[in-house]
Write a structure and sequence with these properties.
The protein is of the alpha/beta class. The chain is built from 15 helices and twelve strands. The structure holds pyridoxal-5'-phosphate (PLP).
Length: 395
Amino acid sequence: MSEHKKRKLETEIIHAGYHPDPVARSVSPPIFQTSTFAFESAEQGAALFSGQEKGFIYTRLGNPTILALEEALAALEKGYGALATATGMAAVSTIYLAFLEKEAHLIGTAALYGPSRTIIETEFVRFGVEADFIDTSDTAEIKKRIKKNTRLLFIESPANPTMAITDLKACAGLAREHNLLLVVDNTFASPVLQNPLEFGADVVMHSLTKFINGHSDVVGGAIISRSQELHKRLQKVLRLHGGTMDPHQAWLVLRGLRTLHLRVERAQENARKIAAWLEARPEVAWVNYPGLKSHPQHELMTRQMTGPGSMLSFGLKGGYEAGLKMINRVKLCTLAVSLGGIETLIQHPASMTHASVPREEKEKAGITDDLIRLSVGCENVEDLIEDLEQALRES
Ligand SMILES: *Cc1c(COP(=O)(O)O)cnc(C)c1O
């Protein structure tokens, strides 16, 4: 990202999507806590429904507080438009429902967020949908799996929890050549570190629950599209299936979003130090962090991201047993799933977030039993290292 773009983004994070309301001039956006909106006349009601006039009708179809968040997200991801959803999974299911017809085929990242994969393997299979979940950091392998009925290339980069990085530009090239849609789950990077639409992706999605809200107190999701056509298609499916956000939730997420760059930069600075410290410890067998030279796609990360972020995973020489002892001994880090909040969280994906993925598939995706995932927060880094050190010493 150029200096100019970074500058623009930092100001947009604070201001995009909101202009003081004309009635009270409130600096913080009002929460339009209403399910429905009054029409001025029967004629106006009809004009709103036919689309001749722009305005609000009913909150499942649109609401000013939700729209403020959507406009901010569209600006940060440089899309045509954004849709806010009840959860990240509502965003995932809306994308699948919008673009996968009966007997369609999907190619996805093997280490995809557990439920994004499980919903295909246990629910969409009922409609004959097929999928190949593979190591998408290997572009040649993606190409080999493309079939006549392939509709979607669904990428998570960096992937959870292995931090494997997929070449977004190469995927966009393959998608164009084979007439597929490239969807990128950008939750781990956030728009501060990566803008997939700029590399040719068609649709970007987020679990707002993570970095964008950033305070571990709300769930939410978003879908940002490259074009009006894609946006309209997704909007139709979202409104019909009803996975929309509510106004209070939108206000909370917008409040969290306003400090996104400050939190991401601080957590990343902490993560860089922790990753280097872990890598030098005798108890540690390996560390997966895109900011380390030892990461297999370190160079690719520098080409498509502005920084490696604050998510990392590692394994101990003592394997699974030692790892469990360690995560039971931390005092400052919290043992919890989820990520991207201001507090540091530690978890064991094989038995927690990815428990629903079959064992063999987990191994293929690099989710080994010894893997510990750390979502580094914004605390003082010396305190975090001290906590990890006392937990390691005992394990
Ligand atoms: C959490 C998460 C999701 C799902 O989001 P929810 O808000 O929990 O529904 C999807 N993708 C990634 C990468 C996630 O971390």
